[in-house]
Amino acid sequence: MDKEPSAASDRQAYDDSPATQSESSSALGWLLLYSVAMFTLPFAAFYSTRYALTHYLHVDGFANTCGSVVAAVLVVNVIIFLYAVRGYEDAKDDDNNHDPTTEEGDERKDEAKKSK
């Protein structure tokens, strides 16, 4: 009789594959990039808008502060949107590239149901 490998060992082999490790490091790289952007770009937007309103448009006081805050909030929302789109695209790519170990496991489940 042929002994079929267990689903756990199939999953472990998939997790240890170089392609999976590359995907993990890529995901961490993107997380780092978005984290740095979330920290730096709103400050840059706030102070550059504040500078532009003060020096070019001669706007001071509450309007200057309000405009600068709105610019920073818009930048934060754009970063969050881009992060969500990136996650959606990655999930869609994962759905298109099926994991062969889970397909084998599904086939085994189907065979077990048919034999009952």
UniProtKB/TrEMBL annotation:
One Pfam entry name: VMA21
Chain spans, region Disordered: 1-22, 90-116
Keywords annotated in UniProt: Cytoplasmic vesicle, Endoplasmic reticulum, Membrane, Transmembrane, Transmembrane helix
InterPro entries tied to this protein: Vma21
Entry's transmembrane regions: 27-49, 61-85
Keyword presence, Endoplasmic reticulum: yes
Organism superkingdom: Eukaryota
One GO process term, biological-process aspect: vacuolar proton-transporting V-type ATPase complex assembly
Listed GO CC annotations: cytoplasmic vesicle; endoplasmic reticulum membrane
Keyword Membrane carried by entry: yes
PANTHER family in the cross-refs: VACUOLAR ATPASE ASSEMBLY INTEGRAL MEMBRANE PROTEIN VMA21 (PTHR31792)
Stated name of the protein: Vacuolar ATPase assembly integral membrane protein VMA21 homolog
Protein's organism: Anopheles arabiensis
